[in-house]
Amino acid sequence: MPPPEAFPRLYVATIDDGWGHGLDVIEAAARAVGAHTRRLGLLCSAQSILEPCAQEPPHILGLTVLHADAEPVVSEIVGGLSPTVRVWAGGPVFLWDPDFAQRTGIHDVIDDVGVFLQRLSALLP
Question: Which has the closest alpha carbon to 50: 9, 81, 88?
Fold first, then answer.
């Protein structure tokens, strides 16, 4: 098992999800392999995500997006991040609208916890 400092810094938030079950799953999977996450919150505004990302940029920002009407907020977030921050996202909007990620600038769509662990493992030294 790699030491915790080997893992990329990961922040997670939801845009239009008040339950956060996806975040719970990602956080549990990250903990299981020794990685840490910072939960920015549920039903976050662009500003409440961009501020902590500007103060201490993560390697990865994970977002849960449920609905297509969140597109302007997601685009604002992605556009306001340092170019070094990768945005991984999941949620039903990506099933209903396959072009959502490309339009908003999301780097990777995470379909399930297995995909998350594969992507995270690929970033380890």
Answer: 81
Instruction: Judge if pTM exceeds 0.85.
Output: yes
Burial class (CB in 10 A: 0-12, 13-18, 19+), 58: buried
pLDDT per residue as tens digits for the range 47-63: 999 999 999 999 999 99
CATH number of 4-122: 3.40.50.280
pLDDT tens profile 70-85: 999 999 999 999 999 9
Q: Where are the domains of the chain?
A: 4-122
How is residue 34 written in tokens?
Answer: 């020794």
